[in-house]
Amino acid sequence: MGLTFVSITISNPADPDKKTTVDCLIDSGAVYSVIPKRILNNLKIKPEETRQFTLANGEKMKRAVGIARFQMNGKKGGTPVVFGEKKDSDLLGATALEAMGMTFNPLTRELLPLLMIIG
């Protein structure tokens, strides 16, 4: 097993011209993506609420959550994003991957198209 990092473009859904690129660790076990608060603030993305999260060691923490637009490899999607604090890792989570129509195979460390089913 290894770590897989990708460059992801993040923008403000209300103003897609406000964007930046961030290197993130793909964490398909994480529901939401985590992006530094200072980056989200610079993009004028506003927190919509605060949610409680549980770390792998059982520790609980609260973080602000907003909505961001993610883009990678020509794929785009809007999804919740966690306002990361200084010690938080920059993560690309499952909902952002799914919003962009992608999934991650942790064995081959490949990004793959997500099978889209309606019904």
UniProtKB/TrEMBL annotation:
This is Aspartyl protease. SUPFAM superfamilies: Acid proteases. Pfam families: gag-asp_proteas. It comes from the Bacteria.
